[in-house]
């Protein structure tokens, strides 16, 4: 449920329905499409002329023309799957390409200015793991070799980086299909082996076995990996002491998610490489609820990690091995990490200064913004440094520099090379090396900048947060009497955080005259454990109430039109969307992308990682029934668009079909589009484009009261067309 994109990707097998189909007697359609790639040309000369005279064209909200088309959105935004630096200091990154059906490619940064990046991954391969469905940690660079997970068969392969004739060679057995997957690996130089998390679904795909295993790199023959650590439900972050004697890892078990309660362990290797002794460093005290994460060994053999003990905020700590004690390195009411939805998080990096001080480059979230700083763990001082990014994810060390993944309201997700002075006290260089949308700056005059909104919830004295994006277009304005329609986005997870950064999907809406608001309802991360736990036992209540309260707040402030409120969400956000439409009357229409309609069915059919997630979020059996929108179809009263991938294992397609058939029978305007080849979260450019355009058309036709400027062939809407 973690993925939460509003618009995403798919390829299907039938052409778009012709306009004559709208008068067809056939109904109860579940539509499948081969996406039309044609985009009509638009004349920008007239618009540019109007802009140059400073006389804006007056036109209804929603009808404005914009160069930020669905093609721009679907084709521009690449996804980042991790970064790495080899022993020579060369930067590598993993990018997912919508234009190549979402294929993930490992890329080497250019060595000279003006050179092009070099693809490392052969066209026959895609670097991606589906461990815990959401993956992450899909590759590791070791010397002149990369070890990676191949998406199609989920086997691990090794490949020489420099040799163009080097073809990837398998390291793990062939089980006849993607039954076993691997993630978050580390090279063990002491025993010449690869240590990694393995998820084994050979016996039971829905209840796979997760362990930490080792793969012998000495043996030229492919062998079954050896289990080093097992017995619990989940494992992450196997991290090896550089001296070769110890391994740290995180583990947790049902019904907890890793951000609810987890444990940090250290194991000691025997002479033959087995674990001969283990110690629970954090999370083992039943009187102390905490969720340790991101363990990391220093070059001196000290273990640092992040946990949220006592304060409820993820802060950096250090383990004192001699006394088996845990001490805070620095305390702040801020989040120095984020929930472990994907493997491979790297929120801080250990450094050495010119004076050989022990320093930590770190980032934290506070009040809806990321800060970057250098922490002196000896003196417990944190020096903040200025960066153009307001959102920072991962940090890795290069040669005399750092590589930081970040974004801002005007920067799309990017990798920046950050150079510090010798004392690590000042940024002396900042250079964008990679951008998810390298051409996005040409649309800067159309950008709507997010405004952080704090609004009252239904609980007296309790507030929640959102990012509001007002309609923005240098060419157009609306009449003073009109208020814009609102698209409210409910993020996925639900344990996740929306961030106020450049998102071309939002700009697609705002540049056409929509207002967009992205809500961090109670249960979101970034605001500490107490805020995160507002949702425990209250999913379908707190999130729904907060989304409705936010929309009402904006109406009362005169920001939006109360008669044109729409809600959209993906995955868990799709559930919040459906629940808001079933149990409240705030919104006039909604779109659910791979959303949940039946909580009981979700619990029974979803994958292992989230199979008990709902236990803490929902409650007893009656709560499951009472909060499932499918059981209260009679309460729906407005149009709904359903978009679903047919290969979704997190929220199976029958969820969307079930709600579709029920709403069709009730007589409400409804449409269901199913995308072949798409999973949980769309990845293909053609699907992203199609889904985005159809949401725009659906809302425009049913609640917008305006004509969309783009030439888009609408899908058939049952009980409407």
Automatic annotation (TrEMBL):
<dbReference type="GO" id="GO:0006508">
    <property type="term" value="P:proteolysis"/>
</dbReference>
<dbReference type="GO" id="GO:0004177">
    <property type="term" value="F:aminopeptidase activity"/>
</dbReference>
<protein>
    <submittedName>
        <fullName>Dipeptidyl aminopeptidase</fullName>
    </submittedName>
</protein>
<dbReference type="Pfam" id="PF00326">
    <property type="entry name" value="Peptidase_S9"/>
</dbReference>
<keyword id="KW-0645">Protease</keyword>
<dbReference type="InterPro" id="IPR001375">
    <property type="entry name" value="Peptidase_S9_cat"/>
</dbReference>
<dbReference type="GO" id="GO:0008236">
    <property type="term" value="F:serine-type peptidase activity"/>
</dbReference>
<feature type="domain" description="Peptidase S9 prolyl oligopeptidase catalytic">
    <location>
        <begin position="505"/>
        <end position="704"/>
    </location>
</feature>
<dbReference type="InterPro" id="IPR050585">
    <property type="entry name" value="Xaa-Pro_dipeptidyl-ppase/CocE"/>
</dbReference>
<dbReference type="InterPro" id="IPR029058">
    <property type="entry name" value="AB_hydrolase_fold"/>
</dbReference>
<keyword id="KW-0378">Hydrolase</keyword>
<keyword id="KW-0031">Aminopeptidase</keyword>
